[in-house]
Amino acid sequence: MLFCYRICALVLSSLWCFLLTVLYIYYKPGNSGRPTVSSHTCPTVLISEYIDSVLSPLVSKLPSFFQDTPHFLRLIQDCEFPKGDGEQLLFTVDVSSLYKSIPHHAALVA
Fold first, then answer.
1. In terms of domain of life, where is this protein from (predicted)?
2. What angle do CA 43, 36, 9 make, to 5 degrees?
3. Sign of the CA dihedral 77, 81, 83, 88?
4. Which residues pair with 22 in a beta bridge?
5. For residues 90 and 56, what is the distance between their CA atoms, to the nearest angstrom?
6. Smallest Cα–Cα separation from 21: which of 41, 35, 31?
């Protein structure tokens, strides 16, 4: 019965057309564009939310996962790094383009 309820909950009572816009990136060669979709009433929004609710707990258990900067700082808090002659370590993370720059196979291996 619970499964049936979840399936029924994936049906929208009213549909609206999604809005597709393209943000042009003028500083890149070829003036490429980045498509954005306003889809809060798109037919796939409920299934997307359901898949997100199923996958989110699994993704957070991956060893390569960190949620944000404070989470990363907590993870490295107990790490001991080599101390040298005034040497400093610098950590940086590029999250803004993380998903489109990771090869699919490498993501599966992680």
1. Eukaryota
2. 20
3. negative
4. 35
5. 29
6. 35
DSSP string, the chain: -HHHHHHHTTS-SS----EEEEEE-TTSTT--EEEEEE-TTSTTHHHHHHHHHHHHHHHTTSTT---SHHHHHHHHTT------SS---------TTHHHHS-HHHHHH-
The rounded distance, in Å, linking the Cα atoms of 88 and 35 is 40
Contact 18, 55 (CB under 8 A): no
The pLDDT, as a whole number, for residue 1 is: 40
Mean pLDDT by 10 residues, the chain (110 residues): 52 66 73 71 75 86 82 84 72 61 66
Tokens of 38: 């306003």
The position carrying tokens 């107990």 is 78
Closest-CA residue to 34 (of 94, 97, 102, 104): 97
